[in-house]
Design brief:
The structure holds two protein chains of two kinds. By secondary structure, chain A is mostly helical. Chain A is built from 14 helices and no strands. Chain A has two domains: 40 residues; 210 residues, MetI-like fold (Orthogonal Bundle), CATH 1.10.3720.10. Chain B has twelve helices and two strands. The chains are: A mainly alpha, B mainly alpha.
Chain lengths: 280, 281
């Protein structure tokens, strides 16, 4: 009797697991399909991309990518994006790392809360005074204005991702160094930093991704020469109303760097994204 | 003393790029700007205008409808996805990367992508509907459907994010909770509703706070797809404030609008934070 009962439960457990796997596959397909469609469309010949009914099978071509680099300054937009993203991520980390260490060391929480407040405010709220300020000093359209504005996105990310990492280091680790009379800067550089290596990697990648993806500031603060890819995407949409192939090629290329980077750190990404609210 | 030096770059940067501009916005909100670039103190005139501005109230309504709709969809789907992921026990890195991909993608790219899929005449979505025998929709081009459509796009992008947060909450629950329920012979769904869900509430409210901050300031996907249209059907407060400021260059009135929106976001976060304390265990 008992053996039959246990077979029964394993049987239903088995079924429950199969149904669950099936649901997971369905969810995965629903999540993936739009992105796959975007990538497929970018490889379609221009006369087939707007075909109706839409075609699933076609001879792939790089025509759209070639057209994109020929008819738009795509590569210089990409270079602008790299400059602004690397610059702002660099400033965010350079300012954010010592700040996060100081906040963790003193256990004062208000600077971190201030950084959180910066995340809560709508971007336009900052853009209005910046626009007036940058115009007065002639910085509209400059890389400086773009990098500084994007650093307002990256620095709070760096602080919030690194705070839990620094908090997790037990105080006893620092004690020997303190007895030796090491300065705080030395303690940060020699002891704390090597211990939060993975945290810094996640912070750097999140800074990069969110700066790369940010739309609003570059929309107003860039000009024709300093336009980032994301801001240029707005023009692609206007011009690309009939050129779906080139539009989807642009979308694919713009999405590629953040998606690749996110895949590298996927395991640690979620804890970082929830600002330490959930330990995953 | 060294602590001060370590935090000085961040503090100075915050003062120059965040704190001072915020104070300056408050000042701008009390002023009017002529086309010649001259500014004039007008007291609360911008706020008086806001109260009687039909577009403001419309924008507030659109913002709130989009907020409630998106948040509800993302929470329900996100929790459901989290349970599926949790039941799968082991989660492969590829599955996690797949779940992360929508919300790591630039919202602007998500907008471009869905613009093509949801095209009223040539889009794949309408073809799919028609081959299932359902009527096609104008999606983003329809004044009635534009808000639900944007909510769907945002849900595609962020429900997986909610799922991963809730999954973190599920994984941190003590296993004894489930054992006790099993001994009592409670059914799966009853266990979930009576025991798991209440224990998950703090995590769920955290997810609500994180999503509320973004949803109340909704901008990117709308600006890339409809710019507030058709007509003004998707003209959220953030879109409206941006257009007042940078299309009509009415910096003073735009400042008043954005400060009001910031107050709404701040209020929502405070309220949800109280809720989080109320459901804590």
């Amino acid at each position: 009797m008992t053996s039959a009962a246990s077979t029964d439960t394993t049987l239903s457990d088995d079924w429950a697991r199969r149904v669950n796997t099936l649901l997971l596959v369905v969810a995965g397909i629903l999540i993936m399909t739009p992105t796959v469609w975007m990538v497929l469309s970018s490889f379609k010949p221009s006369f087939e991309v707007t075909a109706y009914p839409p075609k699933l099978f076609f001879t792939p071509t790089f025509e759209n990518y070639a057209q994109l680099t020929k008819t738009t300054p795509f590569l210089s937009f990409a270079l602008n994006s790299v400059i602004v993203t690397v610059g702002s991520a660099g400033i965010g980390l350079l300012f954010g790392i010592p700040a996060a260490f100081a906040v963790s060391w003193t256990r004062i929480s208000w600077p971190a809360l201030l950084a959180l407040a910066a995340r809560m405010a709508p971007g336009t709220l900052f853009l209005l005074p910046w626009y007036v300020m940058f115009r007065q000093v002639g910085l509209i359209g400059s890389y400086t204005a773009l990098i500084l504005s994007h650093a307002v996105i990256t620095m709070p990310i760096a602080i919030w991702v690194l705070l839990p990492s620094f908090d997790n280091i037990p105080r006893s680790v620092y004690e020997a160094a303190q007895v030796d009379g090491c300065s705080l800067t030395r303690i940060l550089l020699r002891i704390a930093l090597p211990l939060v290596g993975s945290g810094i990697a996640v912070a750097a990648i999140l800074c990069f991704v969110f700066s790369w993806n940010y739309f609003l500031f570059a929309l107003v603060l860039s000009n024709g020469d300093t336009k980032t890819l994301i801001a240029a995407a707005f023009n692609f949409v206007g011009e690309g109303s009939t050129q779906w192939g080139a539009l989807m090629a642009a979308a694919t290329l713009i999405a590629l760097p953040p998606l690749l980077l996110a895949a590298v750190v996927q395991r640690w990404l979620v804890a970082g994204l929830t600002l330490g609210a959930v330990k995953g | 003393m060294e602590i001060v030096a370590l935090s000085a770059p961040a503090v100075l940067f915050t003062a120059g790029m965040i704190a001072f501009p915020l104070v300056y916005t408050v000042w701008l909100g009390f002023h009017s700007f002529t086309s010649a670039g001259e500014q004039r103190f007008t007291g609360v005139a911008n706020y008086a205008r806001l109260v009687s501005d039909w577009e403001f109230w419309h924008g507030l309504w659109v913002t709130l409808v989009l907020y409630v709709l998106s948040l509800a969809l993302q929470l329900v789907l996100g929790i459901w996805l989290a349970v599926i992921l949790f039941n799968a026990k082991r989660i492969h890195g590829i599955v996690r990367s797949l779940f992360i991909s929508p919300f790591m993608m630039p919202p602007v790219v998500a907008g471009m992508m869905w613009l093509v899929i949801l095209d009223p005449s040539l889009g794949a979505a309408n073809y799919l509907l028609q081959s299932l025998g359902l009527p096609p929709s104008d999606w983003l081009a329809s004044p009635t459907w534009v808000i639900p459509t944007i909510a769907l796009i945002d849900t595609w992008q962020w429900a997986p994010y909610v799922a991963l947060i809730v999954l973190g909450g599920l994984q941190s629950l003590p296993p004894s909770v489930y054992e006790a329920a099993q001994i009592d012979g409670a059914s799966g769904f009853r266990t979930f509703r009576r025991i798991t869900l209440p224990l998950l509430m703090p995590t769920i409210v955290t997810a609500m706070i994180l999503r509320s901050v973004d949803l109340l300031r909704f901008f990117d996907i709308i600006y890339i797809t409809t710019q507030g249209g058709p007509g003004n059907a998707s003209n959220t407060l953030n879109i409206y404030g941006f257009r007042v400021g940078f299309e009509f260059f009415n910096i003073g009135y735009a400042s008043a609008l954005m400060l009001t929106l910031a107050a709404i976001v701040f209020g929502a976060v405070l309220a949800l934070n109280r809720l989080r304390h109320a459901v804590a265990w």
